[in-house]
User: Fold these one by one.
Assistant:
Number 1:
Amino acid sequence: MLMVVALCVLVTWIACAMILVGVGSLVLRGLTSSFHFTDAFWTGLVASVAFLEIWSLVFAVNSTADCLLALAGAVGLCVNMDWLAQKVAETRCSKSTFAVYAVIVSVIALRAAGPCEHYDTGLYGAQAVRWMTSYPAIFGLANVHARLGLNTSVFLCHAALNQGPWKDLYFHLFPGLLICALWIPILGAVSRVIRQDSVLTSDWFYTILLIPTNWWSTRGDVVGTTTDEPTAIVALVASGILFQWFQDRDQESASSAAWGSRLFTGAALLLLSVTFKLSIVVFAVMALGIIVVIIWRLEGRSGFLRPLYAAFVLLLVPWLARGIITSGYPFFPSTMFAFPVEWRVHARYAQVSALMIQSWARIPDVLPAQTRGLAWLHPWVHAAVLNRPAFQVPVAIALLGAAAILLLRSRCSKPLRRLSALWLLFPSITGLLFWFLEAPGLRFASAIIWTTAATLGALGFAISSEVLRPLLPRVIAGGIFIATLWCGFGWPHSYKILKSVHGFVALPVASVAARPAQSGLVVYVPIRGNQCWNATIPCTPYFSQTLRLRQPFDFRRGFTSEGLPPQII
């Protein structure tokens, strides 16, 4: 039965990928006749999320929204069928590479068929999806549970998948789909590095990304409403596009129009990453600024700026509107730019919520008072240095790459052009500083950490391979493969839990008790722990007696509350 579930997951991924490619091809063909096939997938994802953001302000995310997206994808495939078929035919992929990719996707599909162990899915993710599929954006929803005000469009993607045969089973699909898409450029780069077949500096960048991608595939959360992996993936794809611009534009066989479309895709993905998780905003904004300057300077291609402005408006404006509707703040739990609306979450509640997130990121499962000042720094460093995929390996790669750049840069050809990709370090280092000061949980900064490591490592390894040929490239590749396996130790648990799969696995059921607020509103509260999972709405572990409906018997009009729930005071 496990194989049947995995096959259903795989078939759904193929259908979703075709829809996204169709939608993306419609957008990109409207800008240029030359673009990469994989960029159509990522552009389609951005366009689909923008559509869902706008749709969810007026309607619940339902099967009608899915049908409209499927129709747009079908139109895109039909209109661009010949062109897409040509692009697929031009794609150089050996049978062995395709076989490896098929095995990887099958393994991820097997893992995606398993039960949900992602904690935050039970804490608030499943509840957020249930609200989105039941109602349009709810005024003051964060008054019910502050985490429901964490405005992430990842949940909209889950809500769109929570239809038809995947009703209440959506959490098996989205993270794995993005991981499978990320494997495509990585396997192509690894193949060229192994064969030493016209290896570009960007191939080293993607080869280094083999390490976190393998970890996500074998040990990461592929089941659940996780926001960390999707955010990291879309940001890394955007970083890869920007790195390729700096390194490989002279070797690019396509015209500057192709680079314009690629950079547009990268910029759109950076915008998308902000809507996925606000913690990446500094890195995304600075990297986006670099792309805007490059597009503006591309001779005769400044026309790509207007579509980029349109993407900004269509994606970020409804996202900001959703944040204001659900909490009264555009960047909740930050209280900046608070709107004077009746349903706005109490400022103290927002501040305490931000403090709890920061405290958890510094030292999990302790009281916020224990993480004030610098007392948290020593235990944080101790925990960080023991983390292989998020600290040990990327730091080692970054240091090795930096050493190679400093020692060998004068002996390589075109050192200024080759090292121009170091511009990526400006958003990376600034983003890391913001992350460290605000909420230094390692999983919150995967994209920034690995962009830094891949940038320095790729430049250092490429220079070393050029200066110290012929043996060194394969030695470096071997070291990356060893690091990949080393980070993957501990993987058996990910597969042992599959033994219990005898069909489609639903979310765990939470035991809840009904509690009336002072207004008479009935709220469901977990009897044990703080996870509501897929319980009847409204459900919250942080019950407030002052919670009330803005209009009696009408969830659509939303909630308001005074003060803080006693559980978090």
Number 2:
Amino acid sequence: MNWIVSRLRRRKTQSTSLVVLLLLALGVTGFLTYQANQADQDHRTNTEWLLTNYSALVATRYAELASSTLGSYAVEVFRSILKDPPGTDEPFAPSISRHVSEQCQCDPLATMRARFSYDFKTDRLVTEPALSREAADAIRSALRTNPGTAIHLLWKMGFEIDSTGPGDVVVFAVRYADAEPSEAYGITADPAILETMLPSPHAFVRELPRQIENDLTYDEVFGIAVESPDGRLVAGTHASKDTYRGTATLSEGFGGMKITASLNPQAAASMLKAGAPKSRLPLLVTLLLITAALIGASVILMRHQSALARERADFASSVSHELRTPLAQIRMFTETLLLGRVRNDAERRRSLEIIDQEARRLTLLVENVLQTSRAERGVARLAPADIELAPAVREIVDMFAQMPKAKSVQFRLELQDRLHATADRNALTQILHNLLENAVKYGPSGQRIDVGLALFEDRARLWVDDEGPGIPARERDRVFEMFYRSPRDMESRVLGSGLGLAVVKQLAVSQGGRVWADDAPGGGARIVVEFPEAYLRAEESETGWAVA
């Protein structure tokens, strides 16, 4: 027993150490998951930063090209004005129309709303046709606030998008005298004129260096949008929310227009081969949960192992006690016989009967232990054969009824004659001995134990009823588990090893049968065992027999 306690303590220490190691493994796995997730986020952040900056570079390149193109238009458009500017009383437009149409192969007059000239010294604005006061004030504001872009030593030109009116574009040239603005000439037009003067976003995108391995078109790779300072779209298309975007702004001389370049994520994935990586967090969390589940399962298995170890220790204690009792009885009555302390033949016979009974009891207990061991190792020593059950059952019950502990019990047999089944004779003896042993042990003194046998379809049913407290419904499956004992039995201090019904189930199943617990008709417990391949060798007996 000390050895068993020592083993249990050592096993408990080992289990605690294993739990600590598993928890450390979970902690390390969680830390690695966190670090991997951080690396994944850093990778995504760097990739998004790279793609966004690439988009910003594209926007800057387009802004530079747009500034150069608009400046070229300005030089060509106002070339004639630089040589021979008209007077302030003589507004112009034909020269602008001619030069713009030569550059963009369009008709600016189709989008022009008005032409004007302006004298900075006198604040005199001449327009054709006449404009509203608000439109005239917008022109004056554009001329005085827009610094323009130098296109000649004495001239600057500019574009301004009116944000207070319908969004007209003011295109103008300013002449300087003594470093001060002197006069200005220009037109107001529909913003569509800028779309004809700006570089084509589609053509610009086609010239970008790229390596695309999917079927995206040029326009689906990059989107270019030119917007006014107040957010109105001048040219191109607006970027969607699921793109990488970069921005650039034209100088104030070009109206402060905003350029937005947007990169399609599908194109980004192809350009970067792997693209912006998908988040690995779901996979990492799944692995962490699997690790936690495995650790939980390990803890449950260890608890189950500890419980099994305790059950084995209890079993060893119970078996030791049950072995000690018959051995003590055998030794005592053997010594009585050896020392000649019996007074007559009746006492001598009584002593021999007790020795025989305890020896049989000891044999049954040893057989149960051996059967348990054989079942765990998968070694079967059964030889099922065709036997007639009723005579065998009567013989076993008669033999059991001779034991002193069964003297106060009444046995009633209801057996169907001529019933044959495939079963092992020794296994049948052990099964019925265990059932009768349990019935006597858990039933009251003076009770009646019913033993029945009948044919049901092609199976033979053997059952034993007692008048004890019965088996609760929630425990009827567990009572057939190895080493299991009901808490009620533990409290009542009824001795037992927890092997009897487990051995009954093992022997029944190994012969192709089954076993279950139920309520006895008169109260108490009923244990039913079925044997396969049963039949009646002749006609049914005329005497009645019970039905389970």
